[in-house]
Amino acid sequence: MSGLMEPVLSLSDVSFRHSITDSNSWKPWATRDGPGIHSIDLEIYSGKILGIIGPNGAGKTTLLRVISGLFKHEGKISKLSPQRRKIIGHMPEQVRWEGGSSVEETLRMFGLMHGVKEVDSILKTVGLTGKKDTPLDNLSQGMRQRLSLAVALLGQPKILVMDEPLNGLDPLAQRALSNLLGQLAKKGVAVIISSHQVAELANLVDRIALLHHGQLLAEGPLEAVKKSLGLKGEKADLVELICAATGLDPDEISLDLAEDSMLPFKRLEVEEE
Amino acid sequence: MNSTLALAGMIMRDRLKAGRMMVIWPLLAMFIIFSSWGLSDPKANLPVSLTIDSAYDVMYASTAFIIFSATLGAVLISFDGISRDRITGVLELKLSQPMQRSKQAYSMIIGHSLAIIIPVTALNFLAVLIIGYRLNEFPSLFEYLTYTISTALLLLWYTSIQLLASSYAKDMGSSIAVGLGVWMTFTLLWLIMTTVVAGLMGISVTDLNSDEYIRIEAIIDLFSPNGVYHHLLEMNLDGFERKISPIIPVLAAIIWSIIPVELFRKKIEKMTP
């Protein structure tokens, strides 16, 4: 892939550990390193949709926040945080919009923070024109997701970072969002989208990045990743992918897996055709 | 600067439209309007050794009610200024915007402060009209401006302290606990604190009119927003001697206007969702 085009953003050996309360210390303010992401190498390309796939606690949200310039990380990202914030539209998972302000007022407020005055076209893109005077308190979950997407689209971002955006959307809205992301990618926007469902992203993404315990296990087109892992079935779910990549036995998976320690997994070399 | 003020204006309008204003408006109206009506009654018998000879004396006496109501209003408006956004996920969106974090911080302080300063200033103006009607005497322009600016500063100090506390709070419960705790310390407990400190320093607390006690009280008041507020207002009162140089309260007011605001700015610059 790197031989074909220049990445719009590249991550090299990027790590971040959350600080969590140290319950073993007598000091109430003592912290220790918690879960995070470890030594991530990733390249983001214009016009391509990258799916970050991993179980709960894999580090998907952390990775997306690092990319969006919200966490101070170790390692190198090709653009500094303030530069990234200008070209990245960030959509967090499930924003609970509250208050008496209207949809339009809220979008204008974020537009001001982005240096954007015109918001009508974005309201139209996300299908909120008819709801622009509706107070935030009266929005349904799907409408809230659309407003979060509208905020992320402000300023025509070069990279769109979306944390589990399909959650809470009905199948029709999911399809509409998939169509919109496809259109944005055709216009040259790099889209990064996270999910813990492979099937959800299978028809949407160009490439997947398989994340587990903060480490990138494999990255490439879904078919190539499956082939490299020796998975032959047409459908491969997350469990199959993780187990094939780590050597875990599916029958021995327990909730104990969700621990803070970083397991030394080896990244799989994916051969692309 | 324009974007900072424009964003502050939007935050102010959002706060003014919040449901809690339904509680704050009547509270402020009752305390400010009724106190000016009652205190400007020539037959008023004040429980403290304060003689009312002029319109400014009435305004000074009514600050006891301002300290109870307006500062509580500042707490109620801004106690969740950050913590609510953190809980709902809106903070993540705000922090990912390209607008400089310092500008965002100043906007929040200006917006939240104005949301309480504007109602209080409007009611104070009405109060001055009431005093003029009852006493047939108005304060001088200098007295009115001193009173208005000092009250605005007091509310700015409370707002910046509350926003700072809110930026550290992890949930709404701790946010309101810190907010009310700070308010109670400065409003209700400060006299006890002053007495204890004076006692520890070997100053007799049985005679509260002794030069030693008045001086130590004046110094300890510099560490409280309410104390500095009274220091500023007392500069216009005849026969009020606090045994410290008049420049010191002015310096204290400047310090109170800078330190919490700058601490909040630094906190926002380093903040993670």
Your description of this structure?
The complex is a heterodimer of chains A (273) and B (273). Chain A is α/β, with parallel strands linked by helices. Helix content of chain A is 30%, strand content 23%. In chain A, helix 6 links the parallel strand 6 and strand 7. Chain A is globular and about 55 Å long. The termini of chain A are close together. Chain B has 273 residues and is mainly α. Chain B is built from 11 helices and no strands. Chain B has helices spanning 2-16, 21-39, 55-78, 83-88, 90-95, 101-135, 141-168, 172-200, 211-221, 225-234, 247-270. In chain B, helix 3 packs antiparallel against helix 6, helix 3 (55-78) crosses helix 8 (172-200) and helix 6 (101-135) packs antiparallel against helix 11 (247-270). Chain B is globular and about 55 Å long. Chain B starts with a helix and ends with a helix. The chains are: A alpha/beta (273), B mainly alpha (273). Chain A binds chain B through residues 65, 68-71, 82, 85-86, 88, 90-101, 105, 108-110, 112-115, 148, 151, 155, and chain B through 3, 6-7, 10-11, 13-14, 17-19, 84, 87-90, 92-100, 104, 272-273.
Q: Reading side by side through the largest sheet of chain A, how are the strands ordered? A: 5-6-7-3-8-9
Global shape of chain A: globular
Percent of residues in beta strands of chain A:
15-25%
Q: What's the tally of helices of chain B?
A: 11
In terms of quaternary structure, what is this? heterodimer
Report the count of strand segments of chain A.
Answer: 9
What is the count of β-strands of chain B? 0
- Portion in helices of chain B: over 70%
Biggest chain contact: A-B, 32 and 27 residues
Mean pLDDT, all residues of chain A: 87
Helical content of chain A stands at: 25-40%
